[in-house]
Every structure is written in structure tokens, then in C-alpha cells.
Write a structure and sequence with these properties.
The protein has 143 residues and is of the alpha+beta class. Helix content is 38%, strand content 24%. It has a four-stranded antiparallel beta sheet, covered by helices on one side. A two-stranded antiparallel sheet has the order 1-2. α4 runs antiparallel to α5 (132-142).
Amino acid sequence: MKDCTAVFVANFDKQKEILPIERLALSLDDGKTSATYITFRYRFILYLFDNEINCFKPLLPNFEERTYEELHKQVLTPLNESLVENQRKLFGANDLKIPKVGLGELIVDQVLSPLFAYQVFSIIIWIMADYYYYCIMITLLTL
């Protein structure tokens, strides 16, 4: 496993991907020694390689196994610098990048939606059937 550069992932939706493997060097509690972890990210979840079972395991919080008092105590105690650095290496920066969508693209997405197509179709039918009041109301609600 130490020579691998990528991992093959197949999920239940029958989608298959090849993802790059990262090696993270994290300092342990004493701050002097470090350990290297083999990881990859898939669908925003970080997976760590477990040598005991020879398999990747998702790194997820275990809130169910802790009591409220333990969680509260953990939140109130400040983190030391090495732990903060390890968290940044594992999870990355706490930011969310939302792509900007242009006005033209937004209009095209709205016009091609099934609801908009149904409303235009209904307006045409109501005009043909002389239901002008329904047509005017749906037109006003659509805008």
C-alpha cells in the first residue's frame, strides 16, 4: 500500500472513479513524533487507511458514543497548536466556495425547468379555451 498513488472506488450507484491518494504527516500528542496516514477524499468524506483491517475507513465524528457532558467539555477547552495544525491537514480550511452563476445561465435553467414548461403550456391552452382570467393569474404567478 505504501507505493500506491491512486485508489479505485466503486459505489452502490455503479459509478466508478480513480482517486489520488494523499499521505499526511501528522504530529502526535507529544508534538515531537509524527505518523504518516494514507488518505483519500470521496464525496466530501475523508477516508483513512487502517493497517489492522487492511482497508480504508471513513473519518466521521462519533457523537453517538459520547455523552453530552463530554462533548460540552471538549468544546469549551481550547485546542493546542499541534492539534489545530493536524485538523487543518486532515480536513482543510473551513471555507465553502460557491461558484457564481451568471444571469443568462440562471434564466436558461429556469426556462428549461419542467414546471415553467407546464405553466407555458397551460397558458397556451387557457388562451385557446377563452379562460383569460386563469391565463392572466398564472402569468402573474409565473413572473
